[in-house]
Amino acid sequence: MKEEVKKIVDAMSKRFVSHPWHGIEVGEKSPAIVNAYIEIVPSDAIKYEIDKASGHIMVDRPQKLSNHMPCLYGFVPKTYCDTEVAAFANEKTGRTDITGDGDPLDICVLSERSFSHPNILCEAKVIGGFRMLDGGEADDKIIAVLKGDQAYGNIEDLAEMPKMVIDRVRHFFLTYKDLDGGAKNVEITHVYGKEEAFEVIKRASSDYDNKYGNVNEHLVEAILNAVSVK
């Protein structure tokens, strides 16, 4: 009976569009190469983000400043920033009060090509990241290059990327909330290379597993339980 239900669940996953966060795998070559679900492209004057319940892209807010996102921006599927990601941030900063932000792990994907719309999936080669704290919460930004990109595709580590490119991305995240009012509470404590980024991805994947487990297995069990109750 369980094997038959698994076949049904597998067939459903091929028939219907998967939830971008829960239904897409992080990637077979993770953490070196990951799948990135892109919510925002550089031409966007609107900040979009995933609606966690439905998986649809929703409008978060119009960008209040004239500067636009300098790269493809989204998240890594089946990741979650919770206790393990926070523990790593505390270890690296020497603090003890950092918590996870409870969101999928953010990723910035650099490419020399322009993109006209978000809501796309791409393969991204991880080269480093920013240890960003937003209101005391770990909000790491993984930095990657689009796999096969003609300008950046051969870059292996953040140190190889032109400094101005990284500075532009860093400046955006330090300033994009400047008009939101209140005290500024966003900081980037470290800019790190790929090995540290790999560790953040592994921890975010572990946090996801601890929080949600195997989504397909949960669905199989729910169907079996429903059948047994009947």
Quick tags:
230 residues, alpha+beta, Inorganic Pyrophosphatase, five-stranded mixed beta barrel, 5 helices
Structure description:
Strand 2 and strand 3 form a beta hairpin. This protein has a single domain, classed as Inorganic pyrophosphatase (Inorganic Pyrophosphatase), CATH 3.90.80.10. The two termini are 15 Å apart. The chain is an alpha+beta fold and 230 residues long. The chain is 31% helix and 27% strand. It has five helices and ten strands, in the order H-E-E-E-E-H-E-E-E-E-E-H-E-H-H.
CATH architecture: Alpha-Beta Complex
Total number of helices: 5
The SSE order reads HEEEEHEEEEEHEHH
Q: Domains counted in the coordinates: how many?
A: 1
Shape: globular
Strand content: 25-35%
Average predicted confidence as pLDDT: 89
Question: The CATH topology, please?
Answer: Inorganic Pyrophosphatase
Topology, please?
Blueprint lengths: L1 H14 L17 E8 L5 E5 L6 E6 L9 E4 L7 H11 L5 E2 L5 E5 L9 E15 L2 E2 L2 E6 L16 H13 L10 E8 H19 L2 H15 L1
Parallel strand pairs: 5-8, 6-9
Antiparallel strand pairs: 1-4, 1-7, 2-3, 4-6, 7-8, 7-9, 7-10
Summarize the structure.
The protein has 230 residues and is of the alpha+beta class. The chain has helices at residues 2-15, 83-93, 163-175, 194-212, 215-229, and strands at residues 33-40, 46-50, 57-62, 72-75, 99-100, 106-110, 120-134, 137-138, 141-146, 186-193.
